[in-house]
Amino acid sequence: MSSAPSPAPAPRAPTPVTRVLRLCLHALFAGLLALAAGRAVAGSSPRAGWVVAVCALLAAVYAAGVRAPAVGRSARAAGMWLAGMGAVWAALLVLSPDGLWLAFPLYFLELHLLRPRWGLAAVAVSACAAIGGFLGHSGAVTPGAFLGPLLGGAVAVATVLGYQALYRESERRRELIEELIATRAELAVAERGAGILAERERLAREIHDTLAQGLSSIQLLLRAAERTLPEDAPAAEHIARAREAAQENLAEARRFVRALTPPDLEHGSLAAALERLCSGAPGPRVRFSVSGAPRELPTPYEVALLRIAQSALANVVRHARADRAEITLSFMDTSVALDVVDDGRGFDPAHAPSGDGGFGLPAMRARAESLGGLFTVESGPGQGTAVAVTLPLPLEA
């Protein structure tokens, strides 16, 4: 036996089926003890007193083990209890041939409480003891003396092993069901989070594309009107105030857009978010670089470029089987570009699956085109993949 048994898992509450099986085993053991004692008394056996005393002792040892919590938790305690019961049962076998019948419930106890190897050995020893007790009392060697204990042991082994197999299958199904429930809960949380982020992005894009752009246009028109009027014109003061109000509301609209920024962009620039994305990517080595002079981008642009980079890098990790990848953010005079290149196995863009089950290309293309950008994919089997998106910068960023 091992010197330090591994910690056992927390015992599960007994089910109604296990409770019924335990009660049946207790009733069987008590009934067989009563049968042995009753037959000894009814048959006026000269050893009736001893048989009754040994049956009472065996019943006391059995009850003590049933009520002891350590027997069900420790293999050592269970072995000691079964050894004590076996010794008392051996004495009963010597005194009465009816003690043979107690071998059957003992088989179940040994197989249930001991490790499989030791349980089978204990069943074999008990069967030999039962056969020896029967031969000692009958004085004749018959096939029944061997078949009874051996068949009883075989039935007990088959029953216990079958029950254990069913129990393990039931536990596996229970674990799968619990895992499925937990996964569904996590998926629901993720979907709610994704919905919140998508709504924040939509609101930020709508505010930027409608309210902020409209206020910016109003400010430009008012500034042009202000330049065409003399400084002392009565309407010049009103136009100046209107332009200041438009400027304040434009600043407020931009603050709203910033407040709706995704968490990935809350604590830094787009370049910093992309660098964190590359450093935390599993699988291939991912390098990040910036080309040109960085400049502040409108929030919808930053969100779109970050989401496209996340989708493209996720495709590299899941599908490309690449060793290296590189993300480049390029700032130009009138546009900003994002390139994601890998040295993976590549694919044929003309036959790429569409929708969520494919490479996510339609979603990336839709993000780029929603901002008037250009989205391209260059790839081929065994040639790696290059994803590029170019967004034209607005006049007022």
Automatic annotation (TrEMBL):
Gene3D superfamilies: 1.20.5.1930, Histidine kinase-like ATPase, C-terminal domain. Keywords: 4Fe-4S, Cytoplasm, Iron, Iron-sulfur, Kinase, Membrane, Metal-binding, Transferase, Transmembrane, Transmembrane helix, Two-component regulatory system. InterPro entries: HATPase_C_sf (IPR036890), HATPase_dom (IPR003594), His_kinase_dom (IPR005467), Sensor_HK_TwoCompSys (IPR050482), Sig_transdc_His_kin-like_C (IPR004358), Sig_transdc_His_kin_sub3_dim/P (IPR011712), Sig_transdc_His_kinase_ChrS (IPR017205). It is found in: Cytoplasm. SUPFAM superfamilies: ATPase domain of HSP90 chaperone/DNA topoisomerase II/histidine kinase. Its cofactor is [4Fe-4S] cluster. The chain crosses the membrane at residues 20-41, 48-66, 86-108, 120-140, 146-166. It comes from the Bacteria. Its EC number is 2.7.13.3. One of its GO terms (molecular function) is kinase activity. Residues 305-395 form the Histidine kinase domain. It catalyses: ATP + protein L-histidine = ADP + protein N-phospho-L-histidine. PANTHER family: NITRATE/NITRITE SENSOR PROTEIN NARX-RELATED, SENSORY TRANSDUCTION HISTIDINE KINASE. Member of the two-component regulatory system NreB/NreC involved in the control of dissimilatory nitrate/nitrite reduction in response to oxygen. NreB functions as a direct oxygen sensor histidine kinase which is autophosphorylated, in the absence of oxygen, probably at the conserved histidine residue, and transfers its phosphate group probably to a conserved aspartate residue of NreC. NreB/NreC activates the expression of the nitrate (narGHJI) and nitrite (nir) reductase operons, as well as the putative nitrate transporter gene narT. This is Oxygen sensor histidine kinase NreB. It comes from Streptomyces polychromogenes.
